[in-house]
Amino acid sequence: MAVPVPGGSLAVRAGGDTGPTLVFVHYWGGSADTWNGVLDRLPAGQRAVRFDQRGWGASRALAGPYHLDQLADDLAQVIERCVPGPFVLVGHSMGGKASQLVAARRPAGLAGMVLVAPAPPQPPATVTEEYRQGLSHAYDAPETVRHALDHVLTAAPLSGTVRDHAIRDSLAAGAEARQEWPLRGIAQDITRAARVIKVPVTVLAGENDRVEPPEVLRDHLLPSIPHATLTTVPGVGHLLPLEAPEAVAAALEDFLKAVRP
Q1: Is 90 exceeded by the pLDDT of residue 174?
Q2: Overall domain count for the chain
């Protein structure tokens, strides 16, 4: 379905009839398809909503701005239009930071949040200008995407199909959408917003994540959301939905049992 937002519409997919609804928000370089493996491992009938964020996937023609606050506004609009009743935000990396901004607004029906290798509210000291400039070129061409996947983003091998889809998704954006997150969004400090999040929060970290290592999340996320629980998934890197979809699905099932009325 198409959800109207400023400048056009977002491509959204919804299905299932058993709640609470899981609202999936993909990473910088991903799409709604990032969650395919996770959804395949959830119980049949689980209600889920996922979408291609502004500038990515089937929403790539949607004009900017692409900044973090706009992504949060878009997410809020998807929730308003597509989510009946209680819901859980499931945000990965960039999508995790946008999810934190939305959770801070305390929308009606929000039952909790699962953050998957999220960008923390307080950027660590390693997010320097030099780092951000280099990151902004990670998706310039197929060869740079392959290098990022093999040497930065993953620690466990991806199947051929999953890897091909990841390469496709990382290239499916215009220059502005590709560069906004690494040049500005990743460095945005949202600790003031994160501190007002009161719903249950579970954080999943990849043991060998080079982008958001477990120690970074302990030092730069947990102080802002102290009631959150942090679980480390062994043997994987930053792309948990692709590297360990079964672990993500199991964590979601456990979380739903805990928050379901």
Answers
A1: no
A2: 1
DSSP state for residue 220 in the 8-state scheme: H
Q: What's the maximum distance between 2 C-alpha atoms anywhere in the chain?
A: 48
pLDDT for position 22? 98
CA distances from 112 to 170, 195, 219, 258 (A): 29, 15, 22, 10
B/e letters for 1-32, b = 16+ CB within 10 Å, e = fewer, are eebebeeeebbbbbebeebbbbbbbbbbbbbb
DSSP 28-89: TT--GGGGHHHHHTSPTTEEEEEEPPTTSGGGTTS----SHHHHHHHHHHHHHHH--S-EEE
Kindly report, residue by residue over 200-236, the tens digit of the pLDDT. Answer: 999 999 999 999 999 999 999 999 999 999 999 999 9
Write out the two tokens for 190: 């949202």
Output the pLDDT for position 36. 97
DSSP secondary structure, 95-148, as one string:
HHHHHHHHHHT--TTEEEEEEESPPPSS--TT--HHHHHHHTTTTSSHHHHHHH
Range of the domain at 215: 2-259
Q: What is the CATH number of the domain that holds 81?
A: 3.40.50.1820
In 3D, which of 118, 15, 10 has the Cα closest to residue 74? 10
Dump pLDDT digits (tens) for 62-75: 999 999 999 999 99
Place of tokens 């500038």: 55
